[in-house]
């Protein structure tokens, strides 16, 4: 699945939300999150993000890896 990382914090542009064909992207208090159970890995969200915050999980930069777990926890705690 795809993961939204730190550049989204405070930005929350929502272009990704409108683009996602399966409504897997949800708004959190500080950023958007991608539901890993709904994400179909279509990558539609990645190029529309104006702050380049979206990565395929295996390509999340090393200094952003914490967002993989943060993303999972967002949906685990819902």
Strand order of the largest sheet: 1-4
How far is the N terminus from the C terminus? 18 Å
Count of separate DSSP helical elements:
3
Percent helix range: 25-40%
Query: Element order, helices and strands?
Result: EHEEHEH
Helix/strand structural class? alpha+beta
Q: From the coordinates shown, what is the CATH architecture?
A: 2-Layer Sandwich
Number of folding domains?
1
Strand residue percentage: 15-25%
Identify the CATH class: Alpha Beta
Rounded to an integer in angstroms, the radius of gyration calculated over CA atoms is 11 Å
Q: Tally of extended strands?
A: 4
Uncertain spans, ≥5 residues at pLDDT below 50?
A: none
Cofactor: [3Fe-4S] cluster; [4Fe-4S] cluster
Organism: Alicyclobacillus acidocaldarius subsp. acidocaldarius (Bacillus acidocaldarius)
GO molecular function: 3 iron, 4 sulfur cluster binding; 4 iron, 4 sulfur cluster binding; electron transfer activity; metal ion binding
Protein name: Ferredoxin
Description:
The chain is an alpha+beta fold and 78 residues long. The chain has one domain: Alpha-Beta Plaits. 26% of the residues lie in helices and 15% in strands. The protein is built from 3 helices and 4 strands. It has a two-stranded antiparallel sheet with strand order 1-4. A two-stranded antiparallel sheet has the order 2-3. β2 and β3 form a beta hairpin. 27% of the residues are buried. The mean pLDDT is 95.
């Amino acid at each position: 699945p795809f993961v939204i990382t730190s550049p989204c914090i405070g930005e929350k542009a929502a272009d990704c939300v409108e683009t996602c064909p399966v409504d897997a992207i949800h708004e959190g208090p500080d950023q958007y999150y991608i539901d890993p159970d709904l994400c179909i890995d279509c990558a539609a969200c990645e190029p529309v993000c104006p702050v380049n915050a979206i990565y395929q999980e295996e390509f999340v930069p090393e200094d952003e890896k914490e967002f993989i777990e943060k993303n999972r926890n967002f949906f685990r705690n819902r």
